[in-house]
Amino acid sequence: MTPAVIDDTTLYAVLAPFAAAVVAPVLTRWFKHNAAWPLAIVPALIFAHFAGFIGPVSHGETFVASRAWAPSYGVNFSVYVDGLSTLFALLISGIGTFIILYAGGYLKGHPQQGRFFSFLFMFMGAMLGLVLCNNLISLFIFWELTSITSFLLIGFDHLRSASRRAALQALVVTGGGGLALLAGFIVIISATGEIEMSTLLASPDIIKDSGLYLPIFLLVLGGAFTKSAQFPFHFWLPNAMEAPTPVSAFLHSATMVKGGVYLLMRMHPLLGDTALWMTVLPVFGGITLLVGTFLAVRQTDLKLMLAYTTVASLGLLVMLTGTSHEKALEGAVLYLLAHSLFKGALFMIAGTIDHEAGTRDITKLGGLRSAMPITFAAACLASLSMAGLPPFIGFIAKEVLYYGTWGWPEMGLAVTVTAVVGNALMLVIAAAVAIKPFFGPRIETPKAAHEGPLLLFAGPVVLSVTGLGLALIAHTTGELFVGPTLSSLLGEFTQVDLHLLPTSFNAPLILSLITVALGALLFTQLDRLRNLFAGVLTAIGWGPDKGFDQFVAGIVGFSAWLTRWLQNGKMRTYMVYTFGFTALAVLLPGYLTGSYPAIPKMPDYRFYEWGIFLIAVLGLVAVLIARTRLTAIVSLGIQGFAVALFFMMFGAPDLSFTQFMVETLSVVILALVMTRLNLSPRDHRPLPATLLTGAVAAGVGLGLTLTMLAITQQPFDSRLSDFFAQFSRTVAHGRNIVNVIIVDFRGVDTLGEIAVVVLAGLCVLALIRVRTKPDRPAETPPTTTLDAQATEAS
User: Fold this and answer.
1) Which residues, in sequence order, are bridge partners of residue 681?
2) H or E element: which one contains 248?
3) Is 111 helix (H, G, I), strand (E, B) or coil?
4) Could you count the other beta carbons within 10 Å of the beta carbon of residue 224?
5) What is the pLDDT of residue 677?
6) Taking the alpha carbons of 651, 655, 658, 660 in that order, is the dihedral positive or negative?
7) What's the burial of 765, exposed, middle or buried (CB within 10 Å: 0-12/13-18/19+)?
């Protein structure tokens, strides 16, 4: 179905958060502690706008809107609205509304709250652009903007070294993956000739048939795996918990980290359903699921426990997306929706506990259900959904994904076992989050625990209740959200029929019961599991996180060594490097392509022409055998004068006169400088250095000679000459074409050349005015002020 063209309102909806970022600091100063309420109107209106697309996209309609951005490069600011982008836009703006409110309560009274709001809105706009952009290049721009804004948010508390390290780590990992993604997009554009995602999706086999599927697949995976924290790039996400909790709840559970999952889902019609896709994604996704849950069990910090289960959930989503099995993809969409709701709520709950009790360590928490009843209720609802228990959306998601993995013919058993183990361990964490802080005897906390204000519990309550409500209307949820999103993944309109309760005693239900039983058993052994996993990790010792530090240290050390080698303070070294690479640049292409020009026959020169040539050769010999720099400079001028004579003989008197003037001034100025600086002795170079510089000089000369021969052997294109001959008189009012070109047609260029000459003259003047200061006598050191005062006192 051809997408329908819509007006620019959706484009404005993407840009609205950036406008809010500008005014957020001002509104924070005006409204003091109540700025969150007016600011939350912006994402709420965006949510309402995209909610208007729910009905049409549920019937298979798609929409596009576009405005030229860089038309000469084919880059447009364009959006593509379908089921997948609508679901993400609703999650970003809907959860973002409550994150803004939550930040207003969490950072109440913080002197930089306005700046924090500004960063949040910039990230929100970047994420909306990422999931809505139709143009590949504009999508990449917003992709990298999410990395930059997350860097600002993670490092918000920039006075703490841990925050700075976490922000830098996230930027390096996700930014590096973004560069790989850019390369992948460039290859896609080169291979297909298309730059719009909607056009590519209209021909889903265009990349698979291009012959460049493998590099495109690897480059796209590089961007997706780093953004969505897949093994071995998973380490940056838990470290990002150094950020304030609103950042953790928004970026690292509900939105940003799902950017890679969004990309894989978006590219599924183009790259999916191949042997490579169905091998690499399930393997890495499964490893990430298990690694994330194992590391989560080891933790006692609420945010870190939730962070590692977020890594695990992202692995589960990647594993399901990699199956290319319709029912497994349906489970991935359902779990995507469920995870955003319960994990966003649980992160805010963890922040509220920390804010009101003064600690997030579950070993130091207990009996908070009476002191924080609303937070406790929200925690129970969200944890039950995370555990996959009825009647929550997480339960339906687990049932559907088990149905998909069990029915996948390729690696169904292995993927199913991995999903069962991972879900059982996530049930353990969900139970720990809901039970440990709130049940048991009351433990004294650093702060007298009490219920947080409305701004802190509004988000968790709404998100956890939404997870319950969507399950109770499962059929409608499937029609309005899951079906349209699944249609985007499959590339064809698909309807979904969801039910809250299983219709029969089947394999998915049995697997769910096994998951719950295994999770309950493991929860009873939580302390032993924590000690066991901690011992295993201690035995392993080295990990990707430490490896990142070693990688950065290695890069810094290598850079320092390379700088010392290249920038050693010697002009001779810089010239050798510069001209050496110049020689390679002009010689290697011809060698690699076998396109060196033919050597022309020697022309019949007249005797005086041979004389000028002989003068040039003698000047070259004089330069090489000169004993002083001054002699070498004067001898070098012979070459310029010989070239000027050639210009004169072959009909270019203006150019010849210019060459005479330049050579004369160059020799005079250089000789003057050399005499003033007393640098007349010639350098004594060892034989290897002489051979190296000689080889570089010969290479540059040979390369430039071959380049000129190649140019002159091409057919002459007279269009530029004809243009100047035609318009020099009529437009520039000059008969001398060379002068007209220099003064009129190349006026700005000539101005630049004059500026260079003036700057060079000023530098020469500065060198000439250098005076050597006499050394201070060693026996009379300078007297300090304190010494002088002491002398007077004595």
Assistant:
1) 628
2) helix 245-249
3) coil
4) 26
5) 59
6) negative
7) exposed
| Cα distances (angstroms) measured from residue 397 to each of 175, 299, 323, 767 | 32, 26, 16, 77
DSSP string covering 714-760 = SPP--HHHHHHHHHHHHTS--S-HHHHIIIIITHHHHHHHHHHHHHH
Dihedral angle computed from the Cα positions of residues 617, 620, 625 and 626, in that order, rounded to the nearest 10 degrees: 130
Neighbouring CB atoms inside 10 A of 430's CB total: 29
What would the two tokens of residue 367 be? 């009996």
Tokens for 477, please give them: 């949820």
- Alpha-carbon separation of residue 661 from 644, 655, 736 (angstroms): 10, 10, 19
The pairing of strands 4-5 and 63-70 is parallel
Residue 787: what pLDDT? 40
Per-residue pLDDT, 676: 63
Residue 158 neighbours by CB distance under 10 Å: 12
Residue with tokens 């297909």: 192
d(CA 610, CA 382): 93
CA 341 – CA 431 distance, rounded (Å): 17
User: What class does CATH assign to 571-714?
Assistant: mainly alpha
Provide the 3-class DSSP secondary structure of residue 348.
Answer: helix
pLDDT at position 593 is 81
Distance of CA 68 to CAs 16, 140, 190, 393, 764, Å?
18, 16, 21, 41, 49
Q: Find the largest Cα–Cα distance for the chain.
A: 111
User: Could you report the average pLDDT of every consecutive run of 10 residues in the chain (794 residues)?
Assistant: 87 96 93 90 96 94 93 90 96 96 92 93 96 95 95 91 92 94 95 93 90 95 95 91 92 82 96 94 96 93 94 96 94 96 95 93 92 95 95 95 90 94 96 92 89 92 96 95 95 90 86 95 91 83 82 90 85 87 88 80 76 82 76 77 81 78 76 62 72 89 88 84 84 80 78 83 73 52 41 39
Task: Round to the nearest angstrom and report the end-to-end CA distance of the chain.
Answer: 100
By CB atoms closer than 10 A (0-12, 13-18, 19+), residue 496 is: buried
542-569 as b/e, with b when 16 or more CB fall inside 10 Å? eeeeeebeeeeeeeeeeeeeeeeeeeee
Cα radius of gyration rounded to whole Å, the chain: 35
Q: Please give the Cα distance from 109 to 102 (Å, whole number).
A: 13
User: Which backbone phi and psi does 210 adopt, to 5 degrees?
Assistant: -85, -20
The answer for residues whose C-beta is within 8 angstroms of residue 67's C-beta and 6 or more apart is 8, 11, 76, 77, 78
Residue 739: C-alpha distances to residues 719, 745, 752, 757 (Å):
19, 9, 16, 19
Q: Which residues pair with 80 in a beta bridge?
A: 64
Tokens 């409110």 correspond to 101
- Domain segments of the chain: what residues? 571-714, 719-772
Q: Is the peptide bond before 391 cis (omega within 30 degrees of 0)?
A: yes
Q: Nearest-CA neighbor of 419 among 355, 532, 478, 332? A: 332
CA-to-CA separations, 630 to 625, 662, 668, 672, 675, in angstroms, rounded: 12, 18, 10, 9, 8
